[in-house]
Amino acid sequence: MAALQTIRSKGALLVGVLGLALFAFIAEEFFRSIETTSNMDRSQVGEVFGKKLSIQDFQTLVEEQSEMAKIQMRMQGQEGNLTDQQTEQIREQVWQQFVQNQMVQHECDKLGLYVTDGEVQEALRQGTAQSLQMVAGIFGNPQTGRFDLAQLQQFLKDYKKTLQQAQQANNPDAIEQIQMIKKLWDYSEKQLRDELLSNKYNMLFAMGFVSNPIAARAAFDERNVKKNAEVAALPYSVVADKDVAVSDDELKAAYEQYKERFFSPVPTRDVKFIDVAVVASAADRADLTKKVQGFENDLRNSEDVANIVRTSGSEVLYTNLPLSKQAFRMMPDVSKHLDSMAVGSVKETYYNMQDNTINTLKLIAKTEAPDSILYRQIAAVAATPEARKAQADSILNALNGGASFAELAKKYGQRSDSVWLTSNQYEQFGLPEESADYLKQLFAIGSGSKGLITSEQGAAVVEVLDRRKMVTKYNVAIVKCPLNFSKKTYEDELSKFNRFLAQNKDIASIEKNAAKNGYSLNELPGYTPLQNIIPARIGGSQAKDCARWIFDEAEAGQVSRLYECGRANDHLLVACVTATNKKGYLPWDNAEVKAFLTAVVKQNKKAEKALAMAKNAKTTADLQKVKGSLMASLTDQTLSGYPMVTGVNTPEPKLAGAIAQTAVGKYSKPVQGAAAIYLVKVTGQQAATAKFDQAAEMAQSAQAIGQRAYQAVFNYLMVHESDLVDHRYQF
């Protein structure tokens, strides 16, 4: 009873304690849920119409598309290694595809549009879809060059069996090629469905608009009827800025007219930044030139060119094989010297500005060789290298004795198909010596002849069926050394920049003194994650750190720390955030908005004054009398073109309209263009030489209108309804 009485007397206190405990429990769960949601948000690259893209899915898509790019490069005879810049481009492309696909999917869901399996099969049968072109070269019809469904179906049917045969034959090249083709197809198949859905949505716009004979004829004449004109122009620049005053009320009125230009679907920042690109000094250049001159001397006095090129640190590895001019297409500085050099000669050390390298090269041999070879082979499959060579001799003897190539190939578990080998399939720098030796032996076999190709590992019997397109090929040893800055040069530049920042700690000081110290202050008004400019243009992990600081940490008026970045660690970067702007419309008095509106209002007022100056002009000669006017003769002008008068240097659609509407020998009224007042006299006209096809023109006009409507709707949805979120800068 005493305990019960105590509880009763302390009831209010206990209720309070229990309430606090309950609140603490609820609060803990609440904050835990917030933390979970926050962690989920931090793992999202972006969002469109509520569809989130996680960093894991984004990275998978990037890796997939990167692999496709590498495969295409290898199919074209390139090494298949992506640069950081190419990877960044793929990241951007993956994001744009995600946005595009989600926009289309969202609209198609509302309309009940989808792609059926039958439509996919029909697209495969026709073989014209853009997403099939990547594999058209593999599964292509030899006559049409188009995608051939039958070849794809046969490949997929035999895929496991063919792969197993390659594995049993211990042929890594064949295994890689078979798997590569399968990856290409899997990727193309996914892309095909997205393409078909996008085309279906796009078709709604194309079919939703019609033209008529009058509009079709007008559109045809816009492109094909040409006129010559004498034009007098009075540029608005004849009116001085001091003679034009602009009020806030005028800026606000202009803001209402141009307001949509200032809407952003995501928060933005007004940014100014200094980007210092560190480059080699004169001392660095002199040191590297001296080093390459040493390798030039080695090339003159030694036959071991492979070792010289390897030890030089050259960007171009040596291939002991004659290569066609096509192989040197990325090195025009080397290519231009090949025909003028004698065999055995060495080019004096030189600097190439295009790729910033110090170079020398030696022409070892020049020969005429086929660009394409048609051949087939039977590889010896005995257990040891010696036994394989003996087996190859036996196969060659049998063939020379009249045995069937196909039967012998079948006996040794191989196919007898012939294949074309073209220069672009194998020509590359740094080709392994064993591969180069194989190709040299292959080239030595004449058309219609059989021969042995041997290596340390074994042998093969080859029959060359055809050799085509003899071209000049060059065996060249190239020393191409990049001119990089030294550690001392970098440290000197870093020290200089740090001193500048120590003396200029705020935005006003940086703006005032940057140019005096040799630094360029770049501006990014309305900078958004969608633009991705700093990471994409400069590169490097710290460029991404800078973007994260700008969007996640910085407040207006702050200056960042110095970032050491760049894809080659060759940039020094500092950013200043002058303003932070929320999602939506920027206010009229935002610095960049106000600058735009001021320019517009001033231009309009100058136009009014210039028009008043030209009000009495009836002819081009009259307008020519006004101080500051210009004269020009324009030929072959059409309504669809945007003519431009020298001295004004602004494309003028209204001038095109004035020329089109004025009869030959007549003068137009003064026309208020974008940058000048114009008065036109048409001096001649040429009738359309093309034949007018009314039906085709009507269809083309309707399609053009549909395309413009599609783009307008797409842009509106993305800006105003997609709830777009872009956090790529965080990753």
Describe the structure.
- It is a single chain.
- The chain has four domains: 157 residues, no CATH class; 132 residues, no CATH class; 111 residues; 200 residues, Chitinase A, domain 3, CATH 3.10.50.40.
- Helix 3 packs across helix 8 and helix 8 crosses helix 25.
- Strands 6, 7, 8, 9, 10 and 11 form a six-stranded antiparallel beta sheet that branches.
- The chain is α+β, with helices and mostly antiparallel strands and 731 residues long.
What secondary-structure arrangement, pairings included, does this model have?
Layout: H1 2-9, H2 11-42, E1 44-48, E2 51-54, H3 55-75, H4 84-111, H5 117-126, H6 133-136, H7 149-168, H8 172-207, H9 213-224, E3 226-235, H10 248-258, E4 263-264, E5 268-277, H11 282-301, H12 305-312, E6 323-324, H13 332-338, E7 350-352, E8 357-379, H14 385-400, H15 405-411, E9 419-422, H16 423-426, H17 433-443, E10 450-454, E11 459-482, H18 487-503, H19 507-513, E12 521-527, H20 533-538, H21 541-553, E13 558-559, E14 563-565, E15 571-581, E16 584-585, H22 591-613, H23 620-624, E17 630-637, H24 653-661, E18 671-672, E19 676-686, H25 694-721, E20 725-726
Antiparallel strand pairs: 1-2, 1-20, 3-17, 3-19, 4-16, 5-12, 5-15, 6-11, 7-8, 8-9, 8-11, 10-11, 13-15, 14-15, 18-19
Helix pairs in contact: 3-4, 3-8, 4-8, 7-8, 8-25, 9-25, 10-22, 11-12
